[in-house]
Amino acid sequence: MNRNIITLATGKKFYFDLAINLARSFILWNRDSNIDFYIVTDLPNQLPLDLLNDIKIISIQPNEFGLGFTPKLFLDKVAPPGQTLFIDSDCLIFGNLIKVFERFKGKKVSVVGDYITNGEWFGDIRLICEKFNIPHLPKFNGGIYYLESSEKASEVYSLAREIEKKYDEIGFVRLRNRPNDEVIMALAMQIHNMEPLIDDGTIMSDPQACQGGYEIDVISGERWLLNSFKHPLHQSWYPFKKVEPLVVHFLGSYTQNYPYKREVYRLEKHLNNKLNWHTDLYSKVTIEAPARFKEQFKILFRPVFRLLFGTRRIIKSERIVE
């Protein structure tokens, strides 16, 4: 059975650039794994020379599959035959993915997550489960989806597209004023009895879930993310203290932070045989050092800003800076 990675890059060149970074991390760790990598895009595309022989483009029309998170509800329409792993473009890969395909094999549609029976997750989960007479919903991060080309997968995704039309009526809460693909797919999967691959922290994680800090080196594959119980931003909903996932999801603003920017610079240099002590030092001096200085400056002068302008002012200032 063919094995494929697909990612979406639609609407803005920014997303195509992220997809290129993801593709490079894939090539570094999976060049000889017989896994095909596809970028699904509605943008005029020009692959960098270092990716021309390894990456494939699936061209779609602008807005062909909608805006926002909606294109993720059409993965069955663009996935090549076989096993397909969708990875968000704002991710980087830190190892070989063969074992991930092996763990998912046989699941027609799946995700990495667990179950939620009540509480709030873009809506009142208990009420939504009662409305559809289901015991729970899979809860997951939509940075990864898995599907196998089959009639069942088409049925799940077809239902998901119907659910999106009734998103507000069902009681789901919007994300950035748009329907959130995660809860839509969760409901469609549960109705069709599709099960998640229970999260053990080894496949994917993100700095938002692990706000105790993280370190990454995409060239060596070393990475860890910390969700320390002692940290003031400990995420009680996330069951792991320290993880070393194969895929790190830099969701939100994390692609603008220096760890991500430094590593994609080093990655491009490495694949073009230009990573050496000089270029490595350059990344630390021009990317990492200014960002660290900015962070320390904010920490040092935060009490002063708070004293001068009050809490509301400092919050506004931080949003502008970040």
Automatic annotation (TrEMBL):
Superkingdom of source: Bacteria
What name does the UniProt record give this protein? Glycosyl transferase
In its UniProt entry, the species of origin is given as Pedobacter changchengzhani
InterPro entries documented for this protein? Nucleotide-diphossugar_trans (IPR029044)
